[in-house]
Design a protein that fits this description.
This protein has 810 residues and is of the alpha/beta class. The protein has a domain of 175 residues: Alkaline Protease, subunit P, domain 1, CATH 2.150.10. It has a 21-stranded parallel sheet, with helices on one face. The protein has a 17-stranded parallel sheet, with no helix packed on it. It has a two-stranded antiparallel ribbon with strand order 1-2. A hairpin with a 2-residue loop joins strand 45 and strand 46. This is Autotransporter adhesin. InterPro entries: Adhesin_Head_dom, Coiled_stalk_dom, Serralysin-like_metalloprot_C. It holds the Pfam family YadA_head.
């Protein structure tokens, strides 16, 4: 009531006056002493809500009211100015506690040691302070008011429009705000909210217990959150950002470098982006940022990207998309894995699809084919082939794209047709391979003239020929072609005659050689004397010419001479009936007898006996009606000689047959050689075409190699046949040369005899040996017959034996 009355004007003072009120003062007869407490409280209220309030001192001390309409209440010294209010009680000067001070127009300072120096500022609390640059100046002449507010013990709002609320809260700078015990906002426009929160730079915001925003315009929201760096944002308990523009959102999330973004519980980002629980994007270079999106995703390299739960990009410029996808490995950069559980761990590799995996590239520069000679050669280098083989070389082409793994495969479908050229590196689709395979094949020529084209859907049919049989054997990865030659054996009978059994066929050189040898080894003749049973004389048999009475046999090398002894001894010579001597002829009984013309000697059952020293000279006349000799000492007649000639002719025929057989074998061998050469040419052509097919398309390689292998097998077979034929030809030629050497005939003369023509000659196969009867001058290997007319029947057996010996040696 006392204050109310004062307010009604009973105790007014001018702006320049000082009014002192004590406990002895009275208003309407009542003292203030009894209402001290009520008066102070009322004065405070009036100073706040009612202009022109009074200044009241309670207790010891003084109260000063300087200009304006302020109110000051204090237990000691208080100052009020221009509607300011200062309330403070001095408790103990030894602690340095001072009175409240409201030292600016409209200021309010409440609390021991509180201090307000800014216009219409407020300091509420023990040693609270609201200060600013305009704290001591200003007027009501239109200047803008920038009040600061400090609420709480030891709070400090130091700056225009600064606000500090909470014990020991600090707001230092224009427009700063700190809310909470020990909160600090240090920088123009900084805001700190929460126990021990700290916003330490202009425009920063720290919200949460022990939160820290340390960087211009940084924001930290959450207990123990930390935003360090210009514009950094940390949202969530224990979040951390360490770099300009970095962002961390979520419990324990970290953005450790400028521009980094970490969103999610326990995420970590360098300059990149990590989104998802436990996601990591750890690279620290601002120009090589990495991205990890998904729980437990990790992008641990420059410019890496990992998207998906558990996705991992391990090395530079790798990309992993999909749950548990993995891209890269140490020193294996630029890899890409797309798909859950996909894995691209090789340099530049790409794995596409669920569980796809890359492998080390197996590229090559060329491949090996056969040339016309059947030798291995390398093709021209492929376009796009590996250059150095060094996987760390960015210029080396060793990268792969995988759409499966070692056990799981995928098709690549809907592929456009790629370019087909020597320099193309385009992908080839199935239709292109079909056309390449359809038109892949080889040409067949006959003696240089085109005959046929065998494409991939064609076939080569090996058929039997007149003297050949085709045998094709299918192997594991190849086929062999064998041309068997139809052969026939040549048999030789005891007479040296050759023959074949069955149908016609080719023969081998060995068969021809055996036939010739058999013809020679099996040839024989029957040697008889005096029409006895005879003796078979074969090639390896020998004939012994034994000398008889009055006959001497001599051998000099290959020459056998049969002659009478100089002084033969005949018991007697009988002439039956008559002895006709031709006209003009003479007959000498003793000494030498000369008989001319027709001579009839002897008769039935009669013998002719010549005396010792007699000589028979027929003078080119015949001895007719000579019976076949039977004993060794019997003379032979022409019929017996003809038989011998037949044997000789048979041997000659056998040799001729062997010669013809050898010539046929030679012809057959040449034909086989020609056939082999033709097969060789065909095989080489097939080989060349197969090489072309291999170059056209890798997919055609298998078919071309099969054809190449078949052709090589045919070539090998043909070469074998050629070698066999050449060997047969050589053997046949050797045998033919032996046959063509013929056999030599030497002639000689007996005493008083003559020799017509050459004394030595060579008889070839097919030649005729003519034995001329006349003067009984028959010589085979220089067999000599002396001219004793009356002993012809004894000489002829020796002559026969000499001829047989000669024939046996042929």
């Amino acid at each position: 009531m006392a204050v109310s009355e004062l307010a009604k004007g009973h105790c007014k003072s001018s702006s320049n006056s000082t009014v002192e009120v004590s406990d002895k003062s009275e208003v309407k007869g009542k003292s203030f002493a009894g209402i001290k407490t009520i008066a102070i409280t009322s004065a405070v209220m009036m100073a706040v809500v009612v202009p022109n309030a009074f200044a009241i001192q309670a207790g010891s001390g003084e109260i000063k009211h300087k200009s304006g309409q302020g109110t000051a209440i204090a237990g000691g010294e208080a100052t009020g100015d221009s509607n300011a209010i200062a309330i403070g009680i001095e408790n103990n000067k030894q602690w340095g506690e001072t009175r409240a001070k409201a030292a600016a127009p409209g200021a309010i300072a409440i609390g021991t040691g509180s201090n307000v120096t800014t216009r219409i500022g407020v300091a509420l609390g023990y040693r609270a302070s609201a200060t600013g640059s305009n704290s001591a100046t200003g007027s009501n002449n239109g200047d803008q008011d920038f009040p600061s507010v400090a609420v709480g013990g030891y709070t400090n709002a130091n700056g225009l429009e600064a606000t500090a609320v909470g014990g020991r809260s600090q707001a230092d700078g224009r427009g700063t705000a700190s809310f909470g015990a020990n909160a600090t906002a240090n920088g123009e426009g900084a805001t700190a909210v929460g126990f021990k929160s700290n916003a330490t730079n202009a425009g920063t915001t720290a919200v949460g217990t022990s939160s820290l925003a340390n960087g211009e315009t940084a924001t930290a929201v959450g207990g123990n959150s930390n935003a360090t760096g210009k514009g950094a944002v940390a949202l969530g308990a224990n979040t951390t950002t360490n770099g300009a523009g970095s962002t961390a959102v979520g419990f324990l999330s970290k953005a450790t470098a400028a521009g980094g973004t970490a969103i999610g519980t326990n995420t970590t980002a360098g300059t990149g982006v990590a989104i998802g629980q436990n996601a990591t994007a750890s690279n620290g270079r601002t120009d090589k940022a990495s991205v990890a999106v998904g729980a437990n995703a990790a992008a641990n390299g420059e410019l890496t990207t990992a998207i998906g739960t558990g996705a991992t990009a391990k090395s530079g410029e790798t990309v992993a998309l999909g749950a548990n996808a993995t891209a890269g490995a140490p020193w294996q950069n630029h890899a890409t894995a797309i798909g859950a559980n996909s894995k691209a761990v090789h340099q530049g590799g790409v794995a596409l699809g669920f569980y796809s995996e890359t492998e080390r590239a197996g590229t090559s520069t060329n491949f090996t084919v056969k040339n016309d000679s059947g030798n291995n050669i390398n093709t021209d280098n492929f376009a796009g082939a590996a250059k150095t083989g060094d996987p760390s070389d960015s210029n080396d082409i060793t990268r792969v794209v995988s759409v499966g793994n070692g056990t799981m495969k995928r098709q690549i479908i809907n592929v456009a047709a790629g370019r087909v050229s020597a320099t193309s590196t385009d992908a080839i689709n199935g239709s292109q391979l079909y056309q390449a395979m359809k038109h892949t094949g080889f040409n067949i020529q006959q003696n240089g003239s085109p005959k046929s084209r065998i494409n991939n859907d064609g076939l080569v049919n090996f058929t039997n020929g007149d003297y050949t049989t085709a045998v094709v054997t299918d192997g594991d990865n190849s086929s062999s072609v064998k041309m068997n030659v139809v052969t026939q054996g040549i048999s030789t009978d005891a007479k040296g005659m050759t023959s074949v059994s069955g149908t016609s066929g080719l023969t081998t050189a060995k068969t021809v050689s055996d036939a010739i040898n058999n013809a020679l080894n099996n040839s024989s003749f029957l040697l008889k004397a005096n029409d006895d049973a005879g003796e078979k004389i074969t090639r390896n048999s020998s004939i012994n010419i034994a000398q008889g009475k009055n006959i001497n046999v001599e051998r000099n090398g290959s020459t056998v001479t049969v002659k009478t002894i100089d002084n033969p001894n005949f018991t007697q010579v009988n002439v039956d009936k008559q002895l006709n001597v031709a006209s003009g002829g003479s007959l000498t009984v003793s000494g030498t007898s000369n008989l001319r013309g027709n001579i009839l000697l002897g008769g039935e059952g009669k013998n002719i006996t010549f005396q010792a020293g007699s000589t028979v000279d027929m003078h080119n006349n015949k001895i007719t009606n000579v019976n076949n000799g039977t004993a060794k000492t019997d003379a032979v007649n022409k019929g017996q000689l003809d038989d011998v000639s037949k044997v000789a002719n048979a041997a000659n025929t056998t040799a001729n047959t062997a010669n013809s057989t050898a010539n046929a074998a030679n012809t057959t061998a040449n034909a086989a050689n020609t056939t082999a050469n033709t097969a060789n040419t065909t095989a080489n052509a097939a080989n060349t075409t197969a090489n072309t097919a291999n170059t056209t398309a890798n997919a055609a390689n298998t078919t071309a190699n099969t054809a190449n292998t078949t052709a090589n097998a045919a070539n090998t077979t043909a070469n074998t046949a050629n070698t066999t034929a050449n060997a047969a030809n050589t053997t046949a030629n050797t045998a033919l040369n032996k046959v063509n050497q013929g056999w030599n005939i030497n002639t000689g003369k007996a005493e008083g005899g003559n020799v017509e023509g050459n004394s030595s000659t060579n008889v070839q196969m097919g030649d005729t040996v003519k034995v001329i009867a006349g003067k009984i001058l028959i010589s085979l290997k220089a067999v000599k017959i002396l001219h004793y007319p009356l002993i012809i029947h004894r000489i002829l057996p020796a002559l026969q034996q000499a001829m047989v010996q000669q024939l046996a040696e042929i």
